[in-house]
């Protein structure tokens, strides 16, 4: 892929520069961007209450940029002109000083808890910001539809919507963007991308990570808000949208919003459309994991789920009647990050053939990237005996991290990868009935052992089989990046 070099100089003002997000994701993300585009002119200004100095911040920037992949010279160049300003971010005069320090275009990135971001925004509103100012923000964008709307209004009082970048780093994952390219560049996929040919779609993101010391945030959120409401609905919107004419940010945002407006939970009984569970003590690849409720900072009476599954439908001409299953869990034994498209059975199998001809599917592994097709074909031996075979190709690794990708678009003032205000609000609207059902305990909270695949019976047998096969393929996928075929395992049960 060719990469665009830019000479635009940007000041990247990180509010909350002393925090975990800056160190773990933002600076390494910037490092991975600089690894590809080393000429970028970025002045990093960190601001926080934390007791850092410009010298210690520069050391941190250098280290994290290198961790992200930037070469030593580039990391040194960017770190050498970085600054740290100890400031109370709720103090308007401190904010004014920060803005004054900016050179070139200004990107203000909120690496702050949402409630503080909202208050800082109220202060920013009073300042005379440079015309080029862009705001970058992390999820959650509000806590429900109403607060998301208020937050959006607050942001739009600071700058116009076309300068607000709501970051969902999944939109920077190369395999997610590839959903658009693959679907619209392949003649064979276009006619079958609808309810006439597709029976069910699953969007799964099971992680082997557990809480990782994030109780302060996660115990208030849970898997439904943390993953399904945001990342997985964004994937669904991209997967299901109508054909796009060009990668125009407004057009993409319009098409995503169109899908999200038509998306609703599957039916009225919460037990039919939602499931939740949390992990108990167990071990993942030899690492022992305490029970979720024993983790520091967890309030067990909150009943926070660490695994959630939700079935939604898209009430439009293309997708009516097709269940879309969204699921994500923590502390799972086998990481499973897939979009699975299950095809309907053929209308007629020529008489005389025997064997298995059902369960054809397309599997898009998001991480590591791979696309597989499960197809019915003639097996060894009897030519009339059909069997399910998997044809699979690994996708080359991304050139930069997902954060690097979203930062690139943010620095370039291109909103293609950002979440527009209406989408942020719609995503809350879609999950609202499930959140309510969880809060009212209408959906029992189940348990699963850390390191397991979650409670039995949540996913259909064919999905369980695909998961097992995928885990096997993943364990061998680094040996080569060529297409291969394997014989699928028989479905469980
Ligand atoms: O797999 P990635 O890119 O780290 O993204 C998953 C993470 O995404 C974050 O947005 C969630 O808050 C985390 O809980 C989750 O682990």
Automatic annotation (TrEMBL):
GO terms for biological process: glucose metabolic process; pentose-phosphate shunt, oxidative branch. Keywords: Carbohydrate metabolism, Glucose metabolism, NADP, Oxidoreductase. Residues 471-480 have a biased composition (Polar residues). Residues 182-456 form the Glucose-6-phosphate dehydrogenase C-terminal domain. InterPro entries: G6P_DH, G6P_DH_C, G6P_DH_NAD-bd, NAD(P)-bd_dom_sf. GO terms for cellular component: cytosol. Residues 469-493 are annotated as: Disordered. Pathway: Carbohydrate degradation; pentose phosphate pathway; D-ribulose 5-phosphate from D-glucose 6-phosphate (oxidative stage): step 1/3. Pfam families: G6PD_C, G6PD_N. Residues 14-178 form the Glucose-6-phosphate dehydrogenase NAD-binding domain. Residues 483-493 have a biased composition (Low complexity). One of its GO terms (molecular function) is NADP binding. The keyword NADP applies. PANTHER family: GLUCOSE-6-PHOSPHATE 1-DEHYDROGENASE, GLUCOSE-6-PHOSPHATE 1-DEHYDROGENASE G6PD. NCBIfam families: PRK12853.1-3. This is Glucose-6-phosphate 1-dehydrogenase. It comes from Yimella lutea.
